[in-house]
C-alpha cells in the first residue's frame, strides 16, 4: 500500500533577496519520511494556490513547521508593533482555517514552534510578541552565533502534567529540549490544554481538548535529530501512527463519500 501523505506547510522566502520561493527545511521532510513513515509533501502556504478543501482531500495529516515570520496579531485581535517582527499573511490565511478544519474532522495535525502558536491562535488564543521581555522569563531565542548543532542544542527542561498526554507519551514527567523561539502563548484558547511548561512557566506542549484526532504541538523543534533523539522520535512516531490510522480508516476518501 502507498504511504500516507503528510502535507508540510512551507514558508515564503526570497532567494538572493529577489526570487520568491516556498521552502521547507530538510529536517522536517526527513522526520516525516524516516520516523513518521509517511510521504512528505511540501505545501505552498497560500490559499490562493492551495484551496483548503483540495488540501484536506489530498493529505492524510499536516505538519505545521516553524518559521521566521510570526502570526499577525490581527488574527488574535491586537495591533502589530515592531516587537511582533515579520509576518506571512498568506500562511496565516491557510493554516488557521486548516487547524480548525483538522480539529473538527479528526485529521491529524502536528504543530512545531510557529505551528504550535498557530494552533493556539486558530483555537482562540493569543501570543506574547517577545517572551524574553516578560519578568522572570529566560531568552528562548535561537543563539545568533555558532554551528547548527550549537543552535539546536538542548537548553532547558519541559515539565509535563502528571498523567497527561505528554507524560504518557514520553514515560517521564520532564524532558530536556532545544529552544529557538521569540514569541509564545499569552492566553491559551478555550480548548487548548497546556500540558507542558518550561522551567520559567512558558507553555511548551499543548493539545486540543476533546479533539477526535491527533493535535499534539510543541514549542521546541523535534525535527532536529528526529530519528535518534529520545524526545523527538516518540513525537514523530505517534504522529505517524495517527496519520496511518487516519488513512487506514479511509480518511480522505471516506469523507468525500460521506
Structure report:
The protein is α/β, with parallel strands linked by helices and 258 residues long. The chain has one domain (5-257): Class I glutamine amidotransferase (GATase) domain (Rossmann fold, 3-Layer(aba) Sandwich). It is built from eight helices and 13 strands. The strands form three sheets. It has a nine-stranded mixed beta sheet, with helices on both faces.
CATH topology: Rossmann fold
Number of domains: 1
Gap between N and C termini: 23 Å
Major sheet: size, sense and barrel closure?
9 strands, mixed
**Overall number of strands:** 13
In the CATH hierarchy, what is the superfamily?
Class I glutamine amidotransferase (GATase) domain
- Indicate the percent of residues in helices: 25-40%
What is the rounded Rg?
17 Å
